[in-house]
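Researcher: Let's do a round of design. I'm pasting the structure tokens now; please hold your answer until I've finished.
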């Protein structure tokens, strides 16, 4: 694969040059952008990268769903649509534009060098039965405005520009289904709520797809790291399956049910009365239980939070107040056991429309 910084056009079909004037003014059609490189495709999105020669105009394929245009290379790209030919937007490196379905969109590379663009089609953009992502206590809009800047938002998506200085770390933030588009190559440490971490190699211009992560990111390089985060606002796909430890025996499954019964009683006991009927939430709390059934102060933590402060605190208190638990069965043979419990409010436990595997 080509590196993001190079100006070569390998792995991408070059789009032909036509006229440097708006093509519709002379009744001549611009060449269509064909042969782009598909970087990612799944049931929710399709991302295609195109290359455009200097001083050329191309028309993008007309799509049946809304899409997002991202400028990967180049500082001067003019963008307009057949539905609104009088309004031209000038986009630069890293900037984005929302493209409506069934519109014919044109792009002109006014720079002296080849440019690259990315078109992300949102396959669910006109689904009628999908649930929107609820608010989150760990939403980067409110929880980490230092590192995340909201650049575009509508009912289908939110797009953030993330910037990390050398050795800088974000707050722990929650995302649903989302894409990462790095604008520089870097080693980034990804920290999970339990303190575990892994190092991910971010390749400039590549795309990474993630499903429902509560993480903090740390830039391990000596130079700033920047990327776009493209968050889907629907479908809302959340985890509901019990989080059991590996190697669980029937005895441990039965023990987990007894623990769950104590936690569930506390959850219903503590549900706030002031919640709205339309409010939806899902919170997953993970707990480590010692051999004698007791828990340490740091043994309870969030691993999924799509809820406001009230329901998040209710879920945490339900787990903490349910302790101590029965002693772990002796045949488990380990000093502790950990479980994850998911709390739902006005949401079904089965997969939501658009989330079926």
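Researcher: That's everything. Go ahead.
Model: Designed sequence:
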């Amino acid at each position: 694969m080509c590196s993001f910084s190079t100006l070569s056009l390998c792995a991408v079909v070059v789009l032909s040059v036509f006229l440097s004037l708006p093509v519709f003014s002379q009744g001549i059609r611009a060449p269509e952008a064909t042969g782009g490189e598909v970087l990612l495709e799944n049931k929710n999105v399709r991302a295609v990268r195109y290359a455009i020669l200097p001083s050329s105009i191309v028309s993008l394929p007309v799509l049946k769903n809304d899409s997002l245009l991202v400028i990967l290379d180049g500082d001067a790209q003019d963008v307009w649509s057949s539905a609104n030919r009088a309004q031209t937007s000038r986009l630069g490196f890293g900037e984005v534009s929302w493209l409506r379905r069934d519109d014919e969109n044109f792009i002109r590379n006014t720079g002296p060098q080849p440019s690259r663009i990315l078109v992300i089609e949102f396959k669910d953009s006109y689904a009628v039965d999908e649930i929107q992502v609820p608010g989150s206590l760990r939403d980067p809009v409110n929880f980490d405005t230092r590192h995340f800047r909201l650049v575009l938002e509508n009912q289908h998506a939110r797009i953030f520009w993330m910037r990390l200085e050398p050795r800088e770390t974000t707050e722990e933030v929650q995302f649903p289904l989302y894409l990462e588009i790095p604008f520089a190559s870097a080693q980034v440490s990804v920290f999970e709520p339990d303190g575990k971490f892994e190092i991910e190699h971010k390749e400039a211009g590549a795309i990474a797809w993630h499903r429902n992560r509560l993480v903090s990111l740390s830039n391990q390089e000596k130079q700033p790291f920047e990327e776009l985060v493209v968050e889907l606002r629907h479908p809302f796909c959340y985890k509901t399956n019990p989080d059991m430890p590996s190697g669980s025996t029937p005895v441990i499954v039965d023990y987990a049910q007894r623990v769950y019964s104590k936690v569930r009683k506390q959850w219903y006991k503590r549900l706030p009365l002031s919640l709205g009927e339309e409010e939806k939430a899902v919170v997953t709390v993970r707990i480590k239980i010692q051999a004698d059934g007791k828990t340490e102060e740091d043994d309870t933590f969030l691993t999924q939070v799509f809820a406001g402060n009230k329901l998040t605190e209710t879920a945490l208190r339900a787990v903490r107040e349910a302790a101590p638990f029965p002693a772990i069965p002796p045949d488990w043979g380990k000093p502790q056991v950990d479980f994850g419990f998911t709390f739902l409010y006005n949401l079904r436990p089965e997969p939501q429309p658009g989330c079926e595997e």
